[in-house]
Structure of RNA polymerase sigma factor:
Amino acid sequence: MSNDEIFAAAYREHYWAVSRYVARRLDGRTGEVEEVVAEVFTVAWRRRADLPPSPLPWLYGVARNCLANTVRGHGRRRRLVDRLGNDDTAHGRHIAAGPEADTPGAWVHEALARLSTADQEVLRLTAWEGLAVDEVAVALGCGRRAAAMRLHRARRRLRAEIDRMCPEATADTHCVKGVGHG
């Protein structure tokens, strides 16, 4: 197969997986998902000669970099808006979620959010994307042993966060007793 055919096959086979990967990381900013996914496949097209035989982990690595660029861009825009004083808080519009806004399992996402972005990513690659350690290594651009160690440490830190949020003595109603112990 030619490089163009290899790219076309990778696009057809992995478009939705990459879209889901991006959507889960943009937390509701659905308007941007297509833009980031298009950027991922633009990079893949330019580097189609470099596509590995199993391209999904490589595409996740590209998506990770594209998302980082997007996040940096948001940060720059947010800082500019803050400097201009044109944000909702400057105009007294505060929106508070009611107690019914708590979604089941939200505490897990809260514990995950307390971790570093690197820990969050390695955990999401294994849990959400279903990647094996070898594939995580490709997505993160590191060796297999480094990926395994990052995963082990991230799991340990997540367990510690869950333990902090859900001490057995107080068994918070948002937590499942015993989660994180094992």
Summary: DSSP finds seven helices and no strands in the chain. Confidence is low (pLDDT under 50) at residues 87-100, 169-173, 177-182. The helical segments are 3-25, 30-46, 55-84, 106-113, 117-127, 133-140, 144-165.
